[in-house]
Structures are given as C-alpha cells and as structure tokens.
Design goal:
The structure is a single chain. The relative contact order is 0.13. This protein is 27% helix and 27% strand. The chain is globular. It has 316 residues and is an alpha+beta fold. The longest helix is centred in the N-terminal third of the chain and has 14 residues. The chain starts with a helix and ends in a 5-residue tail after the last helix. Strands 8, 9, 10, 11, 12, 13, 14, 15 and 16 form a nine-stranded mixed sheet that branches. Strands 1, 2, 3, 4, 5, 6 and 7 form a seven-stranded antiparallel sheet that branches.
Length: 316
C-alpha cells in the first residue's frame, strides 16, 4: 500500500515540476513533499501553530544526513542517535527505528532525489501546556529532503582551505546541557558564532570548550596533523559526530596514528594540516584559524578522497 501511495505522489510531484534548491525563493516555498507524522504532505502545507512548544523552549532534536546515489550514508546510526537524543530531552517519538528508516527512503523516492540532504526533526508540538513543562503536549516527527551541494560553497577553494574565526562562545560543561544529544537549542551559540565569523570574512568559527580546550567548529568536528600523526579533540562535552567516527576508522585503516585528547589553542601553531568533518561539511580542509595558517596537505586531501569514495560506495 505504501509503495502505491509513493508512486502516485511521485507522479504528482513531477507534474508540478519540482524546482531545484537553487531556484527556490526559500525553504518554506518549494515544490515536493515532506513526511509529517506518518503522512506525505505537500511541501508548502507542512506547517504548525505559533504556540508550538519547541518554538518557545527549544524542545526539538534533529539529524542531518546525506544520501549518495539514493542511499543514505550511515542511515541507521543517524536514526538511532535521533531516538537517543529524543529520549534525553523527554521527547516521545512514537515511531520505531524501522518505521523511521522506511519513511526516510520514501521521502527520497517521492521527491525523486538520489543525492540529497535528509533532515529528520522531532519536537514538542502545541497542546494543553504552554510553559517550561510540556508533558501533555504531543511529540511530532517530520522528515524533509532537498538537494544540497558543498556546505562551505561560499568559502575558499577546497585546495586552499577555508578560514575559521575563533568564537567568543564556548561549548558548555556537560553538567549544564545534554551535550551528547543533537538538540536544536544547543545550536543557538553556534548560530551567533557563525554569524560573527561570516561578518569577519570567514566560513566558520572554532569553538573552545568551557575549560579552554579546542572543541569543534559550529557544526563540524576538527582534526589536526603534526609529523604525520593526527590529533583531534576528545568529545567529552560535545557531539561525537558520525562523520568524525567514520574518518577515525579511515585513518586507522591507513595505519595513521591518531591521538584523541585535550588540545590547547596554543598548540595550533605547531600543527601542519587541519580539516573539519560533518555530514553536511563532509571532509573540508582548513587553511587558516585566526592567525594560524595550515597547508592543505596530502593527508587532508587523502581523507577528502577516502570519505568521498566510501559514502558513494556504501550500501546500508
């Protein structure tokens, strides 16, 4: 039955001439379909009430995923992390991992997309509660997908590396936030940091943690190279990204020694190469952080190639 519905909706999508992301006036005004609470909804009809709890109190979790050749890379890992994030925020997702996996595949198919970004998001909706507590409000789930190219497309050429600002905002202590959940509210300081970075002519910002150690960029993990060995911050107060974990495996498969540890900002002067990792960012070489410069060297570009080869050959 689901297959029949998908086929019918796919035909409808083609009839209304789905527009590409480059021609769309905005993310709220597109052709296509979004999966919402178990149903395929025309894109422009996927709306909710102004008194939705998540809009006022940040009670929302999400995932960022990429499909390559019609296959979502590490799809099950993302789904399981979404469910864990929701549990950490007392958001009761009513769908199983298997149902979410099927919905993601269906939304790609209905929108006729092979290479795309996939965004599942769960949140507390409007209901009987409109205060900090909201246990009586229903929890909702949506999945959208759209074409999305290089995340840092406005930055430098990849062969030169992007430039990072150094943020004034720090990643908080895990005693103050659910730091291992991919929760929407935790990105507020990331938005502020990236806005300032862009005003300063940079593509992104490096964030330190509450102790002053190097942490991550606003939406990506970070790696450094010195004397042929890799150093990356220990993710004890920020998200241990799925792409980060993937790149660690790629490095180790090549016999590259990796140090997961606390890194002081003063150490940046001694590193030779640097790159960022994230589902949206993929693997992105960095040419400069503040006053520190890095070469886009062989290992950085090897990781760009290895990751690209892996995600385009993966069959989950």
């Amino acid at each position: 039955m689901l297959a029949i519905v998908v086929v019918v909706l796919a035909r409808l999508a083609r009839e209304v001439h789905m527009s590409s992301s480059t021609n769309s006036p905005g993310y709220g005004d597109r052709d296509g379909f979004i999966w919402l609470d178990g149903k395929m909804i025309p894109w422009r009809s996927a709306r909710f009430h102004i008194l939705t709890h998540a809009m006022h109190y940040g009670s929302s979790v999400f995932e960022g995923e990429r499909a390559y050749n019609g296959i979502i890379f590490a799809s099950r890992q993302h789904t399981e992390r979404l469910l864990k994030s929701a549990q950490a925020l007392d958001i009761d997702i009513k769908y199983s991992a298997e149902e979410i996996e099927a919905a993601k595949r269906a939304v790609l198919e209905i929108n006729s997309l092979m290479d795309a970004y996939v965004r599942p998001v769960a949140w507390r909706g409007d209901g009987q509660d409109m205060g900090v507590a909201s246990s009586r409000n229903p929890c909702r789930l949506a999945i959208a997908t759209w074409p999305w190219g290089r995340y840092y497309a406005a930055g430098a050429e990849q062969s030169k590396g992007i430039q990072l600002d150094v943020s004034e905002w720090k990643r908080p202590s895990p005693e103050t936030i659910p730091c291992h959940a991919k929760a929407a509210g935790l990105y507020m300081i990331c938005t502020l940091a990236k806005h300032r970075a862009q005003r300063n002519g940079c593509s992104d910002a490096l964030m330190l943690d509450f102790r002053g150690y190097v942490a991550e960029a606003t939406g990506a993990n970070i790696f450094f190279v010195r004397d042929g060995e890799v150093h990356t911050p220990l993710p004890d107060c920020f998200l241990n990204g799925i792409t980060r974990q993937t790149v660690l495996k790629l490095l180790k498969s090549r016999g590259i020694k990796v140090h997961e540890r606390h890194i002081m900002p003063s150490e940046l002067e001694g590193f030779e190469q640097c790159w960022l990792t994230g589902t949206a960012a993929e693997v992105e070489p960095v040419g400069k952080i503040g006053d520190y410069s890095f070469e886009v060297g062989k290992l950085a570009m090897t990781m760009v190639g290895d990751y690209s080869d892996l995600v385009r050959s993966e069959r989950n």
